[in-house]
Amino acid sequence: MVKWFRLKCPCPVTGCPNSQGKLLEWVCASDRDAMYINENGILACTHDKHVDKIVNWKFDCGDRRGPHKYEHYLSPDYEGFSHAMAMALPHMGEAGADWVVSLVNAVRIQYGK
Fold first, then answer.
1. How far, in Å, CA of 76 to CA of 55, rounded?
2. Is the dihedral of CA 39, 40, 45, 46 positive or negative?
3. Where are the alpha helices (DSSP H) in the chain?
4. For each of the chain's 113 residues, which pLDDT tens digit applies?
5. CA separation for the pair 98, 20 (Å, rounded)
6. What is the domain partition of the chain in residue ranges?
7. Beta strands of 2-80 (E only): which ranges?
8. How would you class 18 by CB atoms within 10 Å of its CB: exposed for 0-12, middle for 13-18, buried for 19 or more?
9. Strand order of the sheet with strand 4-6?
10. Which of 25, 33, 26 is closest to 49 using CA atoms?
C-alpha cells in the first residue's frame, strides 16, 4: 500500500538560498492545499486535485534573490531534488528505509538516471 507524507524539504531548485537546510512546508499554488509525496515519486495536494510525477512539478519557495528572481516556478534538476530529499529524510523517521529506497529509485528513473 502506498504511503503518503507531508512534503517538507528545502527548496529543490539548485542554487536557491533556501536549498540549504531550512525545511519548507510546500503547498499547491493553485488551491493552497498541503502537498504530499509518496514512495513512487508522486506529489499530490490534499484533495488529489493535482497529482503528478515529481519530474513534472515546478517549485517556488518565495525567494527572489536566487534562481526564482525572474521566473518564479522552476523545475528542479535531479541533483537539486535529491539534495532536498537528503536534507528532509532525517525528519521523516516514520517513513522507514524501504520507503526511502523506493522513493530514491522512483526519482532516479523519472530523471532518466
1. 8
2. negative
3. 78-88, 97-110
4. 899 999 999 999 999 999 987 899 999 999 999 999 999 999 999 987 899 999 999 999 999 999 999 999 999 999 999 999 888 877 677 888 889 899 999 999 999 99
5. 25
6. 4-110
7. 4-6, 8-9, 24-25, 35-38, 42-45, 51-53
8. buried
9. 4-6, 35-38, 42-45, 51-53
10. 33
Q: Extract the C-alpha cell encoding 56.
A: 513534472
Written as nine digits, the cell of 53 is: 510525477
Phi-psi region of 10 (alpha: psi -120 to 50; beta: other; left: phi over 0): beta
Q: Residue written as cell 512534503?
A: 7
pLDDT the model gives residue 93: 72
CA pair distance 37, 51, nearest whole angstrom: 10
* Residue 111 CA: distances (Å) to CA of 11, 30, 36, 41, 64: 18, 25, 19, 11, 26
Instruction: Report the DSSP beta bridge partners of residue 43.
Output: 37, 52
Q: Say if CB 13 and CB 61 are below 8 A apart.
A: yes
